[in-house]
Write a structure and sequence with these properties.
The chain has helices spanning 7-13, 16-31, 77-81, 107-125, 140-152, 165-179, 189-194, 236-240, 249-255, 257-265, 277-282, 303-320, and strands at 2-5, 35-36, 41-45, 50-59, 65-73, 86-93, 100-105, 132-136, 157-161, 183-185, 198-201, 220-223, 243-246, 273-276, 295-298, 324-326. The protein is an alpha/beta fold. The protein folds into two domains: 2-110 and 304-326, ornithine cyclodeaminase, domain 1, CATH 3.30.1780; 128-301, NAD(P)-binding Rossmann-like Domain (Rossmann fold, 3-Layer(aba) Sandwich), CATH 3.40.50.
């Protein structure tokens, strides 16, 4: 039987602590060579301005898993069809037989697993006493980012900045209530950055959103929003002065403008990527080495995050009787 799970089903059973644990294990498996994860396949659909992306992964070891996430990006959807720009579906298979065991909506799952990756990075790279977080962006991704950061570094204060003042205000209200945290919407980026221990960039900006000169010693940055070779949220000054950790070195060098543009400028080389996150998790590469170090985690998003999270979702759903079992 195959378990079908809607977005609401996934949201009802997926918790951030469980997702952080699953994603941390996936990064470790990747670093140990226990995973097979091809670079994502991308098909353009020019007549409809669309992109179709396939993200498969196999995880070996104790947490064996096999699956594929399909993502479509259609910018015309909201205006023409009343649909979200980005849609996702995940298919989970039994690694022993290849049989499909679950099919689930991947929209909410993707937001949570992306937040979880930043949670893992923050756990290893942020100062132990980090207590103030600044979030650039107020969308679904940004919300899960703050949830994850607050889970691994209980915060004293958070600030949110967004070009949409209403979205920022709603973010501050909702996350403040959800986390029992003082969250404030602000518009002074320089003051926010200068007072931050942790910065999350989860915007849609194609160009840098703050000046690297504003960063204080010891700041940790989770760089999330930019996802193409020609776009970036961080300026070259920020990258040059940072201890730069990729979710996966190969993915960053293929997709991440935040590191590729400084490389094109001649400011850094590929060797500026100090480690992939899995190497930090397994201890084969050092995490933060002193309290003054500025650290950056650059997330492109990996299929192992999706598949490991889907396993946790399917397990929790079956335990709680959530979803619909069907014979395909």
């Amino acid at each position: 039987m195959t378990l079908l799970l809607s977005r609401d089903d996934v949201a009802n059973v997926l918790t951030m602590p469980d997702c952080i644990a699953a994603v941390e294990g996936a990064f470790a498996a990747l670093a140990r060579g226990e995973a097979d994860m091809p670079q994502r396949a991308v098909i353009k659909v020019p007549p409809h301005h669309g992109l179709f992306l396939g993200m498969p992964a196999y995880l070996g070891g104790d947490a064996e898993a096999l699956g594929l996430k399909l993502v479509t990006v259609y910018p015309d959807n909201p205006a023409k069809h009343g649909l979200a720009t980005t849609l996702g579906t995940l298919m989970l298979c039994d690694p022993r037989t290849g049989a499909v065991t679950a099919i689930m909506d991947a929209g909410y799952l993707t937001a949570v697993r992306t937040g979880a990756a930043s949670g893992v990075a923050t756990k290893f790279l942020a100062r132990e006493d980090a207590a103030v977080c600044v979030v650039f962006g107020a969308g679904a991704q940004a919300r899960q980012q703050l949830v994850a950061v607050n889970h691994v570094r209980p915060l004293r204060k958070a600030y949110v900045l967004d070009v949409n003042a209403e979205a920022a205000a709603a973010f501050a209200r909702d996350l403040g209530e959800q986390l029992g945290l003082d969250v404030e919407a602000v518009d002074d980026a320089e003051a926010a950055v200068r007072g931050a221990d942790i910065i999350v960039t989860a915007s849609s900006s194609p160009t840098p959103i703050f000046d690297g000169d504003w960063l204080q010693p010891g700041t940790h940055i989770n760089n999330i929003g930019s996802h193409a070779p020609t776009t970036r949220e961080l300026d070259t000054k920020t990258v040059v002065k940072s201890y730069f950790v990729a979710d996966l070195r190969e993915a960053n060098l293929a997709e991440a403008g935040d590191i590729l543009i400084p490389m094109e400028e001649g400011a850094v080389t590929a060797d500026h990527i100090a480690a992939s996150l899995g190497e930090i998790v397994t201890g084969t590469k050092p995490a933060r080495t002193d309290a003054e170090q500025i650290t950056v985690f650059k997330s492109c998003g990996l299929a192992v995050q999706d598949v490991s999270t889907a396993v946790a979702v399917a397990k929790a759903a079956r335990e709680k009787g959530v979803g619909t079992e069907v014979a395909l």
